[in-house]
Design a protein that fits this description.
This protein has 364 residues and is an alpha/beta fold. It has one domain (2-360): Rossmann fold. Helices cover 32% and strands 25% of the residues. The protein contains eleven helices and 17 strands. The protein has helices at residues 2-11, 19-28, 57-73, 88-100, 114-123, 189-197, 212-224, 239-242, 279-288, 299-305, 323-335; strands at residues 17-18, 78-82, 106-110, 130-133, 142-149, 158-163, 166-175, 178-185, 207-210, 225-234, 236-237, 253-256, 259-261, 272-274, 277-278, 292-298, 345-351. A seven-stranded mixed beta sheet has the order 4-3-2-5-10-17-16. α5 (114-123) links the parallel β3 and β4. The radius of gyration is 21 Å and the shape is globular. The N and C termini lie far apart (48 Å). The relative contact order is 0.15.
Length: 364
Amino acid sequence: MINFLRNIIVSRSSKMLSYAEFISLVLYHPIYGYYMRKRIKIGSEGDFITSSNVSDIYGRTIAKWYAAIVEEYGINPQICELGAGNGRFAKAFIDEWHEKYRQPLQYYILETSPYHRELQRKSLSFGETVKQIESFDEITPFSGLVFSNELFDALPVHVVEKKQGQLFEVMIGMEGNELVEKAVILQNEQLLSFLKKYQLTLNEGQRIEIPLEMERFLENIAKSLEKGLVVTVDYGYTTEEWMDISRRNGSLRGYYKHQLVKNVLERPGEMDITSHVHFDALIQKGEEVGLHFLSKQRQDEFLLSTGILNELTEHHDPNPFSQVSKRNRAIRSLIMPGSMSSFFHVIMQQKGYSFKVDDLFKCS
């Protein structure tokens, strides 16, 4: 991967890549990209873990919640999951639906990684009602639920920094065999417009990630969604939180074998790279393209609203390894104070409906 990047950099007249270009290549290049390579990424043998991989209770709870909305309001029993990883959420959701509900479910997985598509085929039965797609174009217009879990944090971002009163874009160059950062005076009008639009005024010495790709992704969702809900699960900050002095170094980081790596130029193509989502920008951009804001909750609060506590089973089984014991521990791990859920938020948006937040939980 390093030789591949070097060839691209030296071929440029500027001898540099933007951070967004770098992240796009090291994560999504069809041959060398981290997400495209045949390597376990999620779980104890990988580099990170997601809520859906703690237990199938996560996918089953959201399936039960959505089924109640379908039954109560007649919303379309279709779901498009964006970036389904190893398919564990999809399997839990589909299993719960088929076991409990009569309405036929149409489940689409938008997945561009050949490796993840292969993993999904091992755990899911694909056919007319469960399909893998590579583009929104394959299902436009879509009506139903658009769901993503830790997708937006993995989209490419630019990096901007303020030094000596001047805004710079942080670029990537080469020195010998090493990738290095190079600061150039910020001239990208799209980045300047983003900072102004979302009222992001950097302090001296502060850097921040600018997610132009997030805006484009939201535009694609809105274009494809005719009517339905968008549920986005991720970690991020509001504009006010971004401006806090504790975030002066931004949020860009890598994960390799469950260890946080501060220098994302290390191990290109071999580790996950992530940054916190701009929640206010996601919500405001959604409004502009017709995805109207419903709510933003911590994930544990969302799961409690869906009725996950009803899934706790009273029992007196002394065996801590029994299925009931494991299930109860998984539920508690998702809702207890300080659990991983407290670091995630669930943002709900709607198009073509006029739901109020309480409408979507009264059926749970």
